[in-house]
Amino acid sequence: MLHLALTGNIASGKSTVSTMLARHGATIIDADQLAREAVAVGTPGLEAVVDRFGAGMLQADGSLDRAALRRVVFHDAAARDALNAIVHPTVGRLREEALAAARTRGDRVVISDIPLLFEVGLEHAFDGVILVDAPAPVRLERIVQTRGLPRADAQAMIDAQWPSERKRRDAHWVIDNEGDLATLQARVDSLWTTLLTLPAGGPLPQRVPTADTTP
Ligand SMILES: CC(C)(COP(=O)(O)OP(=O)(O)OC[C@H]1O[C@@H](n2cnc3c(N)ncnc32)[C@H](O)[C@@H]1O)[C@@H](O)C(=O)NCCC(=O)NCCS
Ligand SMILES: Nc1ncnc2c1ncn2[C@@H]1O[C@H](COP(=O)(O)OP(=O)(O)OP(=O)(O)O)[C@@H](O)[C@H]1O
Questions:
Q1: Domains observed in the chain
Q2: Which residues of this UniProt protein bind ATP (predicted)?
Q3: Less crowded by CB within 10 Å, the N or C end of the chain?
């Protein structure tokens, strides 16, 4: 089994790329989705969030008020660390479970979508790392347009992550996503062709240049 990490800063296009890779047949393990499960109604995770941040973080139906928590943690690094400490261990455990299931099924290519891969120092736990990137102003516009957030809130989310320049150096493949979706699809198709030539679990070339993924 080839197990790769897919990462990239907020609104770089990770989910779009992972959907394209899934259509090619990859198994996707999505950390944002696992993070939602970690704080679902009735979990110790949600209880811990309420203990730390107060009952104001709940909606009337008892589920997490994500917008309320977002407004707190993206303007306060200590609060963000506290939330990460609650959520990340559960996300790690759920990822291991999903990975074990993929192994049992005999899946060929498994891709773990992990937004904070480099920030949490997980990059060496995989056979290789795919980074999706787009310039910060493009990402800012995407957040404002698709999430309908105020510009300052969108910028705070961008500022909560490492600049991508630092991540590009350590990725095996960089997919630039500054253009249209057809260009992105062509880049993902090209990457998939490359992935199929790799030995499962074998050594990967170190840091393949961006041009290699550009058709
Ligand atoms: C703060 C929360 C409730 C906001 O929810 P919301 O629905 O608005 O955003 P969503 O979960 O879709 O995340 C959107 C993007 O924000 C970025 N992001 C999320 N959490 C963090 C964080 N702790 N630090 C930096 N960036 C983050 C990621 O790029 C992510 O893809 C949520 O992001 C959360 O629970 N974050 C903590 C868990 C976490 O670290 N998730 C990231 C993957 S494990
Ligand atoms: N090349 C593109 N052209 C136009 N829109 C795009 C392109 N790539 C992504 N988008 C749009 O930008 C938004 C963000 O993309 P996506 O959700 O894939 O990013 P992400 O990196 O997974 O973001 P997040 O960190 O918030 O989970 C989506 O609405 C998506 O449809």
A1: 2-213 (3.40.50.300)
A2: 11-16
A3: C
